[in-house]
Structure formats: structure tokens, C-alpha cells
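Late entry, flavin mononucleotide complex.
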Amino acid sequence: MKVACIGAGPAGLYFAISMKLRDPAHEIEIFERNAPGVTFGWGVVFSDQTVENLQANDPKSAEVIASEFAHWDDIDVHIRGECITSSGHGFIGIGRKRLLEILQDRARELGVTLQFNAECDPTDPKWRDYDLVIASDGANSRFRDANPEAFGVDIDVRKNKFVWLGTSRVFDAFTFAFEETEHGWIWAHAYRFAPDCSTFIVECSEETWRRYGFDTMEQAESIAACENLFAKYLDGHSLQSNASHLVGSAAWLNFRRIKCDRWSSGNVILLGDAAHTAHFSIGSGTKLALEDAIKLADVLNRPGLSLEAAMDEYVAERNLEVLKLQNSARNSTEWFETLERYLHFEPLQFAYSLLTRSQRISHENLRLRDREWLEGVERWFWKRATDGKSNKTAPPMFAPFKMREMEVANRITVSPMAMYSAVDGVPNDFHLVHLGERALGGAGLLFTEMTCVSPEGRISPGCTGMWNDEHVAAWKRIVDFVHANSTAKICLQLGHSGAKGSTRLGWEGNDVPLDEGNWPVMSAGDVAWSPVNQVPRPMTRADMDIVRDQFVAAVRMGIECGFDMVELHAAHGYLLSSFITPLQNNRTDEYGGSLENRLRYPLEVFAAMRAAWPSDRPMSVRISATDWAGENGITPKDAVEIGEAFAREGADLIDVSAGQTWAEQQPVYGRMFQTPFSDRIRNEGRLATMAVGNIYEPDHANSILAAGRADLVALARPHLIDPMWTLRAAAQLDYRDIHIPPQYLNGMSQLARNLKREAEAAAALRV
Ligand SMILES: Cc1cc2nc3c(=O)[nH]c(=O)nc-3n(C[C@H](O)[C@H](O)[C@H](O)COP(=O)(O)OP(=O)(O)OC[C@H]3O[C@@H](n4cnc5c(N)ncnc54)[C@H](O)[C@@H]3O)c2cc1C
Ligand SMILES: Cc1cc2nc3c(=O)[nH]c(=O)nc-3n(C[C@H](O)[C@H](O)[C@H](O)COP(=O)(O)O)c2cc1C
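Prediction complete; structure with ligand written out below:
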């Protein structure tokens, strides 16, 4: 094969090497615009896994690279005069220049032709003479941008400004240094990549960058200003740029996240940064480029594989890797872009939040890396959770949490779940066993399902209610059981179905109207939930008074039953949610239009409930923090305002759900997918929040809590199958100080023993 590689970066060089290793008969030419030795940037970081991949592909170059690696284990986070050091992170770094030299030597040795000072023009007809043209020309690829439609290029220019500098100051640890200036926060990511050299990337928000005047400074002035700012970390060493071919402030960049729908067109194939980028804060761009190169060489040399099939396999496999990394990279990028949100944290929690920002590193992961440090975080968490009374070193999920005079024994909640099993709104033996069993299972807090304040406020004929004495007696029986047999607290979730009412039992068709016996529905506006649902009647002021009073009456009944807490359900498109979301609320009076207007009635209901509910008991509100409809619906930014508005009316907790407010929603599912909304409301609004949504492992819960992304963690579906989720987690994490129903003590100790034995056997196998 006759192949041209555009660009002698890691991707182009390593692809050429990998091709020659597989078939020395290939004719490979690399064209590089720069002179040899001229490149941007300083060091790059690798993981052990990448090193293994290089070793398997070309042991010879891998050995040279490995012999020159700088290793380090610690991460230092400097903030507000403190340095938080954690260990066990195991990084490996090498200078970019040195890496390229090693790869150039190896490529030459294998017979690759290298041409430097050779600027390539994608329109040059000579490219037609090659079987393949590998566009390994980096993030600003001319070969990709000459034909963006063919590749389906998607570029997201990120908000922060950064400059990639170097210094002779040698950092023993991977160092994050955050500095507060009169113009805002500015920080450095620094790490050693050679015995006498470190990378020093400076980053800040665009606003800080402008306020500082970096936009008008010459490069030398910019560097001098950075030296000044970070003088205490540089120890008299200077900062240097090797982007001298870039003039003035151009050395400062905005990171560009690139992805492409297609990676080949005609004889051109994208490789490395030309096809995709990953934010420098997770340091994986070079890894991706090298692994792309291995895979592409692999499929191109596999006997019997057509070019088309080779490309399909290359793109399918590499794209999946890229998407996974870009996902983590996005979390990490956003963490730095929303840094302000976390600056009120104490330094230890700030460092924890930084370390877990991409969600690739979890609580247990940190325990494996540095047990002592992690236990320090746990002690800190318990101390804060108990006003300094406890010195316990234990997982955060088992720490108590106090709202008003109610204290929950731990942070795990059974999320509200409709069971569609009541008759005339009356909870029965099913509900007693269902909620009773989950109370015995160890969760600190149980929510009832959405309990409706009137017959016509039900979603289905099977929904529970709270509008008459029979309901009070039936609920009291359940509440009494929970209180008598567990330490769990129980919260009554009250709601009204609005336009989503008069539908079948959940398992007979979600949101599908009844075959017969439908009742008229009302809502904020006259928007039907879907074409098959009834068109609701927009509420009149008289309707509003009636429904508000029904909520208040239900709260009073809740007091009679002995509930510990009440939640107003203002999420998921039901009546109160239909006021909040602009997708359902088409009113033109003072209850429609602006967010302030749309919140007016839900807040009125909440305030009336709060007035009726004892002041020593807490109340929460469940909201949908996004309509999953972009700017057309509720956005996470609006959700902060919504949370704040309810908090002003006395909400002690914002139960942060999302969506179900619009039939055409476009949710983005994944592990802990709604937690970022809780994080934002908690840390921008400084409110107590509960996170929910695909949280299913104890490790998820502990990571969320320790990172300050929520105060409580709710699990719904995991509790359907495993009522004992919390006790099982306690056994798994070897935590004993939890209420275990005495009848179950034997089972619990046996489970703990078996889990311990299994863990020891698994550890022995690993050794
Ligand atoms: C601040 C910062 C820090 C980073 N830190 C890390 C890290 O720690 N770890 C990590 O793995 N990655 C890191 N990266 C990413 C890493 O630098 C890239 O992902 C990696 O270099 C991609 O390799 P590549 O070969 O695809 O592209 P590049 O390295 O960009 O190489 C492209 C080459 O093509 C040449 N070229 C471009 N156009 C033409 C043309 N028309 N004609 C001829 N030649 C051309 C360029 O001169 C260049 O040499 C970082 C990036 C930045 C910006
Ligand atoms: C069967 C079922 C019924 C539900 N009923 C309610 C409800 O009555 N009120 C409510 O606010 N959320 C309800 N939800 C939503 C859950 O409380 C929770 O937010 C959602 O399932 C996501 O959490 P998970 O991923 O842990 O299941 C229900 C969920 C399920 C699975």
C-alpha cells in the first residue's frame, strides 16, 4: 500500500510504525509542516493500560519510551493556603518532544520516509496518487476541514481559556494550584515529565482572563503575569512557552471538543486529534491517538478484510472508546468551567470533588489508591454530619442527616413509587408489607408513593389517597408499623395528577386513558399530555382554591397519621408541574408567562401546606430539574431558581428528579444521570438536595455524598427488587452500627461473613 500521513504527531508517526511492523512492503511517507524538534506543548501523561498496549504493539519503541518515563504517585491540591495531598494515583509522563523523537527514530529505522517543513494542502492533486491519505494533522486538521460535511464534524468550543507552558521547576506531585485574585480565580495544572522539566498549564474563565487584561498582553507579558501569580509554586523558576510560532495572546486557547460522525471519505482517513479531542484535564489525547493508530493498522493489514469492512470495524471500536472518554472529559471540563460552584467547600472536600470530577474515579477507587486519605475524608464527613460529635471513620451513606428536628439515621432513601394497588385510595395489606419491608431493609427515609389529595387527583384508580378518615386509619397503621419496627422515618408524598390523570394502572399502559369510567381532568393550561389523552380544563381561580385546600387537608391528615415529613410532588408533568413547565402552561394570566408567574400557584400551595405542617418537621418538594427539551423547557439553570423559590417558602430539601413533563422529552440516560442537577441546585443555590436516578451501588451513593453533590440519595427501582438494599450495603462495606431488626440478626452476620470471605478469595486470586 502507498500511504501518505499528514503530520508527524503521535498519531501519524505511530500509525506509520504500526503499518511497517505488520507489512514492511508498505510505502509510507510522513509530511510534517514543522521542522524536526519544533512542536507545541510540553509533557504528556499516560496510564499503565496505554503502556501495556504500546508494549504489545511494538515492544522496541515501548521499551525506550518506558525507560524515559517520569513516575509520580501523589496529587497535591493547593487552595486557600492549604495543600491536600492524596497518594496512589500512579501517573507516568514523558516530554512530547522526546516522545516524538523516539517515534521518529523508530519510524526511520522501519523504512518510513519523513519529510519536514512540508505544509500539505488538501486540494493538491498529488494525494490522488496514494492508496490512503491519513489525516493525522491534529485538532485543526485542514484535511478534515476541507470537507466538513463528508466527516460530519461537530466542534464545541469550550468556555475557559488556557495556556500550555513549561518550567524547569520540578514538581514531585501532580499539582493543582488554585489562586484567588482580584479579577477572579486562576489555576494551574502542573506535572513533571522529565528529570528537569514540568508542564505548567494555566487556566481561568474567559471573564477573569479579560479582567486580568490577558486579552491585550503580548505573549511575554502574559507569561510574566503567570510567573507572578504562581510565584510561590515556582520557587524562582521561570515559565516558558514553546508556542513561539504563535503570536501575542494567541498562545491562550479555548479547548475545542471535536467529534466526527464519519472518519473516512474517499481515500482520506482521520486519525487522532483530527477525528476527536479529549480535554487536557483528563490527559488522554495522546493515548487515543496511539490506540487509533494501532487499531487502524490492525484492520488494514488483516487478510481478507475489505477496506470498507476495515473502516467499519475501526470506526465502531474507536468511536466507542472516544465517546466514553469524551463523556468523562466533559464532566471534567465542566467541573473546571463551573469551579465557582465548589469554592465554598472546605479544602478537603474541594480536593475530593476535584479527584472524582470525571466520575471515572469513585469513593472505593480512592480507598484503593490511598486508604488513609480516604478515611480522613470519611472522618471529616462524619464530623460535619454530627456537629463535631462523631469521630467515626465510616462510609458517608451511613452518616445521619438532620432537617429541622427530624434526624434520619442514614442518607439512603426509598424513592416514592406508585404501586397502583389501592382501592378507592385506601392503602391496604400490600402497602403495609411493601413499605414495612423496605423500612426493615435499613434505609433512613421512606417515601410513600404519590398520594393523591382527591379522587380526581389520582393518576389511576389504583393510586393511594388522603382525603377521608378511612385513608387516615389505613396510613396510620403503616406509619405505626414503620415506627415500631425500624428506625426509618416516613415521608408522605402528596400530589395531584392534573392532565396525566384518569389513566390505567402502570403495568396496563403508562399514561393511557382508562377503557371506561374516565373522569374529567384539569391542568394549568389546555395542553393534552398526548394525542390519546384528554384535553384538560385550565384551572380557574376557584379550582385553585379548592385544590390548595385539599392539599392542606391532606397535610392535616398526615399529622394525624404520624408522618415525619411531607413532600409536595411538583415534578413529572402532574398538576403543579404543569404550572412550572412552559411546555404545559399556556396561560396568559398571572400564573403563566415568566417563571416567576408559573411558580406562583405551586408556591402558594406549598406555603399553605407549610403553614399547616408542624414547624419542627421538615418538608420537601420534588421538582423536574429539566424538561429535557433544551431551551424550550425548564433548564437546570431555571431549576436553581425553582429550588430557591421553594426554599424561601420553607422547603428543607429539594428532591431533584428530571423530565416526564413532556411526552417528546429527549433524556440523556446513564449512571447517576440526574445527579448533576442536584449538584448544581445544592452548590449554586446552597440548598439541601436529594439526588435520584440510576444510582444503584453503594459506591455511587458514597461518591455523591462525599463530593457534596447531594445530601441524601434516593433509590427507586433497586429497592423494588431488593428491599434490603441498605442492610446489604452495610454488610458489603462491613459497617455494623446500623439498626438491624433483631429477627434478622443471624442473616445479617452470615451475609457479612460470606461477603468478607468472597472478597478475600477474590483478592487472593488477584495476587
Ligand atoms: C494543553 C494540552 C495538554 C495536553 N495534555 C495531554 C496529556 O497530558 N496527555 C495526552 O495524552 N494528551 C494531551 N494533550 C493532547 C495531545 O497533545 C493530543 O491529543 C495529541 O497530540 C494528538 O496527537 P495527533 O498526532 O493526533 O495530533 P498532533 O499532536 O496535533 O499532531 C499533528 C501534527 O500535524 C502537523 N500538521 C498539521 N497540519 C499540517 C499540514 N497541513 N501539513 C503538514 N503538517 C501538518 C502538526 O504540525 C503536528 O505536528 C494535550 C493537549 C493540550 C492542548
Ligand atoms: C414503579 C415506579 C413508580 C414510581 N412512582 C413515583 C411516584 O409515585 N412519585 C414520584 O415522585 N416518583 C415516582 N417514580 C420515580 C422514582 O421515584 C424515581 O425518581 C425514578 O424511578 C428514578 O430512580 P431509579 O433510577 O432509582 O429508579 C416511580 C418510579 C417507578 C419505577
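The longest strand covers residues 153-167. Will revisit in the morning.
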